[in-house]
């Protein structure tokens, strides 16, 4: 393996739907960056400090408090991080890791094999594993012959990329802090927690014993939570913050035109109309299937995301090996087809009423795209109300499955296809919305088939095709479009922005020109 690259990646975003190209930062070698206090505006309150809860609301802290075993470059090339080397067995039934020496957790405890074992144990626990749990389905067991070596064994041969995705997703947690990690961070990352004011923000400081040479640059990292995208943008324009992270595409386009830098990474999300198929009329498959045609995806992309993204009918970004453009055409907006499926459901007009669309009222895109769907439903004679909730109240309902239907983005959609199961609506077990036993066994079987497709190209493609057919047939999630998440809009004095494969915010390389 090569040594860990310390390059800082900055790419120019594409000009989509008439938007001007996003600006790229100067190459890192051409910059002399200084430290100081980096002030970042975010739009969501943190849920918790558990790195195994890879929710959008936690994206701004995960890679600042923690490190992964390996990292991907924005192009998808694996590089060492807390694991300096990895060897995949010829039969693809195991991987052996060599762990980095001289690394400590924020508590002062040394990073060793026991840290990885404890993290694997948590990830494999359906009650504690959160987004990692489904990814661990391929793992049989693990062992550590010494303090610097860990071997992970798989239940069957596993494709190389799926193994690498697992390693990139595993973020070691201090074993002594694993039971309290939701409230007290327990990582090895470039920053440590100073304080948090719920609903207002949090302050981090540079880890003086961080293992990456000459990082982090900024000594203090201050996050401020804004309840509205417009307020965050105004703070950037006034100089009250240096960066806005994870703001809207519309604001990014406007601020780019006003002279601010905009950085767009490779980790697109896919917006999905999540359906709780255990409630009301959604228990009826034909009724759910009608929503494949009720989504005016072009309008949703235009009004919600300034046209920046791609219309999709499957939960994959275009970079996914399971992406299939034909589904977008087959399941295009068609009210006549929707009406036929509604009629086939056999549900009475009264039975189709009485449910609501949960809406993140603090997110302009969420409000506008929910209104588009509300309008389409009215055209087929189904009146529906919008249940507006703000901030933490919405997040709690979303993650707890307390809704009939709602829009919620899903990530990991540019990686190995079964990584989609890290998202709550697509989990095959421990699903907080659909519960156990999973009400869609054909979907669970389709995921297992993809996981087991380590043979030739024909076997792999057949598994992907089967999964796609099952997804649209079961219709508990209706994808509408891909879009940029984790957009970084920065003042002109900022340099050294690192783009993460998942578009998580990485502050350690950022400094001031």
TrEMBL record:
Q: Does the keyword Transport apply?
A: yes
Name of the featured protein:
ABC transporter substrate-binding protein
In the UniProt record, the signal sequence range is 1-30
Q: Which residues form the Solute-binding protein family domain?
A: 77-413
Asked if Ion transport is a keyword of the record, the answer is no
| Species in which this protein is naturally found | Bosea minatitlanensis
InterPro entries named among the record's database cross-references: Peptide/Ni-bd, SBP_5, SBP_5_CS, SBP_5_dom, TAT_signal
Per the record, the similarity remark reads: Belongs to the bacterial solute-binding protein 5 family.
Location in the cell reads: Periplasm
- The entry's keywords: Signal, Transport
Top-level taxon of origin: Bacteria
Cross-referenced Gene3D superfamilies: Dipeptide-binding Protein, Domain 3, Periplasmic binding protein-like II
């Amino acid at each position: 393996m090569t040594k860990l690259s310390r390059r800082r990646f900055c790419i120019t975003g594409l000009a989509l739907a008439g938007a001007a190209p996003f600006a790229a930062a100067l190459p890192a070698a051409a910059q002399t960056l200084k430290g100081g206090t980096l002030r970042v505006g975010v739009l969501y309150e943190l849920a918790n400090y558990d790195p195994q809860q890879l929710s959008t609301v936690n994206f701004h802290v995960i890679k600042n408090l923690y490190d992964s075993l390996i990292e991907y470059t924005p192009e998808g090339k694996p590089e060492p991080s807390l694991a300096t080397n990895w060897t995949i067995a010829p039969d693809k039934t195991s991987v052996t890791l060599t762990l980095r020496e001289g690394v400590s957790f924020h508590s002062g405890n040394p990073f060793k094999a026991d840290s990885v074992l404890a993290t694997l144990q948590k990830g494999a626990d359906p009650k504690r594993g959160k987004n990692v749990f489904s990814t661990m389905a391929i793992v049989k067991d693990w062992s550590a012959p010494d303090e610097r070596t860990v071997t992970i064994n798989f239940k069957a041969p596993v494709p190389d990329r799926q193994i690498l995705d697992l390693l990139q997703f595993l973020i070691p947690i201090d074993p002594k802090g694993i039971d309290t990690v939701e409230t007290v961070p327990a990582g090895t990352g470039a920053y440590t927690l100073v304080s948090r004011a719920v609903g207002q923000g949090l302050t981090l400081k540079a880890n003086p014993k961080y293992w990456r040479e000459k990082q982090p640059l900024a000594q203090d990292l201050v996050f401020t939570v804004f309840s509205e995208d417009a307020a965050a943008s105004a703070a950037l324009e006034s100089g009250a913050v240096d960066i806005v992270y994870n703001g809207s595409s519309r604001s990014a386009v406007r601020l780019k035109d006003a002279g601010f830098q905009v950085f767009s990474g490779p980790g697109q999300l896919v917006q999905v109309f999540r359906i709780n198929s255990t409630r009301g009329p959604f228990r009826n498959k034909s009724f759910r299937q009608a929503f494949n045609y009720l989504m005016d995806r072009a309008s949703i992309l235009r009004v919600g995301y300034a046209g920046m993204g791609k219309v999709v009918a499957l939960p994959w970004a275009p970079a996914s090996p399971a992406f299939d453009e034909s589904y977008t055409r087959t399941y295009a907006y068609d009210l006549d087809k929707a009406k036929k499926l509604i009629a086939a459901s056999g549900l009475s007009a009264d039975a189709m009423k009485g449910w609501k669309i949960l809406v993140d009222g603090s997110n302009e895109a969420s409000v506008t795209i929910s209104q588009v769907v509300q309008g389409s439903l009215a055209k087929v004679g189904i009146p529906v109300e919008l249940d507006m909730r703000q901030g933490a109240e919405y997040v709690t309902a979303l993650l707890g499955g307390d809704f009939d239907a709602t829009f919620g983005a899903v990530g990991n959609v540019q990686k190995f296809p079964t990584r989609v199961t890290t998202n709550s609506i697509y989990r095959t077990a421990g699903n907080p919305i659909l519960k156990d036993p999973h009400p869609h066994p054909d979907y669970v079987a389709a995921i297992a088939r993809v996981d087991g497709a380590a043979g030739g190209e024909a076997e792999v493609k057949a598994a992907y095709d089967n999964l796609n057919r099952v997804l649209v047939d079961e219709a508990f999630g209706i994808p509408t479009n891909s879009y940029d998440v984790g957009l970084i809009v920065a003042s002109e004095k900022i340099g050294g922005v690192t783009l993460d494969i998942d578009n998580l915010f990485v502050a350690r390389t950022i400094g001031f020109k």
